[in-house]
Amino acid sequence: MNKKTTPSAVLAADVPARTAPSLYPEPFASRVAGREKRQLGDFFGLSNFGVNLTRLAPNAISALRHAHSKQDEFIYILSGSPTLHTDEGRIQLSPGMCAGFPAGSGNACNLINESPDEVIYLEIGDRTPGDEVVYPDDDVEAVFADGQWRFIHKDGTPY
What we know:
Elements: E1 35-39, H1 40-43, E2 49-56, E3 67-68, E4 73-79, E5 83-86, E6 89-92, E7 98-101, E8 110-112, E9 119-126, E10 132-134, E11 141-145, E12 148-152
Antiparallel strand pairs: 1-2, 2-9, 3-10, 4-7, 4-9, 5-6, 5-8, 10-11, 11-12
């Protein structure tokens, strides 16, 4: 018999924050300083998709602007007013607004907290093997293989 040790329900804010603030190599990891993720999906042992409760301090960014090849991505703003930066431009979001980015769309995105208040949002994405991520503004690409992200320069050399 498989015994469950994780409770079925918790306060999301009680899930411990991820200890590593970023998976990016330097010089990119320091650019997401001020971002805090609580990996809710991992906490509950979800394997098909991930859910993060993410907090952005003032002047913090969610990620480098990026687009996934195989992973759908969805965000829902809980509090604060971040700026969504996509290939179409910038738009200020507010609580209750959401945005979705289908896999393979090529529409690179990130959130920027240009306000004096913190931003809290949910980010949801699937865990499709073989996902690749392009970062149009930076010399980095990522490949999801064997359950982990591998970062390379655009010329293919590893970080």
